[in-house]
């Protein structure tokens, strides 16, 4: 074998980004090094892996697409050697592919990942951000090892370990009439313009809150991007429903938003760790799950105001 795992990793990064420049930025490696590695692989394998498009990056050839599948499998098998070794000598090391629900990722993922790799310096976390539905698919296809998401829909074949609860609330602009409310019912929201977070399964949860109460909201806009929704709310376009509560009370443009709890004992979302239901999980996955359980709870959620923190601040 006259190619290296490093060259394979360069190939994967280039294939996924479609650009030697972007692959260079992702890996923090010079562009000539990546170009040389790809040329070497094509020469060694005697096949063209990429089509070069002038000023438009690269695209995989049919052979390159097949190669990408095998290359990822090869790297995964190589990483598993570390996992096996760590289980033999009880040392935690290796690479963990972590997926996170998009609405949670910017708050919970950086601190949680950093604290784990700091506790176990010989580990590495590869992060993926997606919606709940795609995370389940990626787990099913072994594209990720663990997911951080909600308990909205957990089919058979998956394990869910709960970490913290997130009751629903509305967000409104500081000058909105609802901003003066201590809490608000779904009936009071019916005629107000709703900007809906339009993500698979999440939207069903939000709309299900209304359906359970026998009312229908007035949806004026939908978006899959919570930062955009938050900024539109701050500018007075309407209200939105959310469960996550960032510690910052500002939208992306610097305007404040106000959170108002929804009354009536509405079903909360539950943050948890999702894995495939297997007879035996790797030591690395088990340790990460334990780390999540010790690090995330109703008393503390990275990047958020946790439920018990809020209750302590609430007036008697």
TrEMBL record:
On whether Transferase is a keyword of this UniProt record, the answer is no
Q: Which residue windows are transmembrane per the record?
A: none
Using the record, list the residue span of the signal peptide; answer none if the entry has no such feature.
none
Q: What is this protein called?
A: HTH-type transcriptional regulator TtuA
Q: What is the role of the protein in this entry?
A: Transcriptional regulator of the ttuABCDE tartrate utilization operon.
> Can you cite an annotated GO cellular component?
protein-DNA complex
Protein origin, superkingdom: Bacteria
Pfam families to which the protein is assigned, alphabetical: HTH_1 (PF00126), LysR_substrate (PF03466)
State the PROSITE patterns in the record.
HTH_LYSR
- Family matches, as SUPFAM superfamilies: Periplasmic binding protein-like II (SSF53850), Winged helix' DNA-binding domain (SSF46785)
What residues does the HTH lysR-type domain cover? 1-61
The source organism is: Rhizobium multihospitium
Q: Which UniProt keywords apply?
A: DNA-binding, Transcription, Transcription regulation
- The answer to whether keyword DNA-binding applies is yes
Question: What does the similarity note say?
Answer: Belongs to the LysR transcriptional regulatory family.
**Molecular functions per Gene Ontology:** DNA binding; DNA-binding transcription factor activity
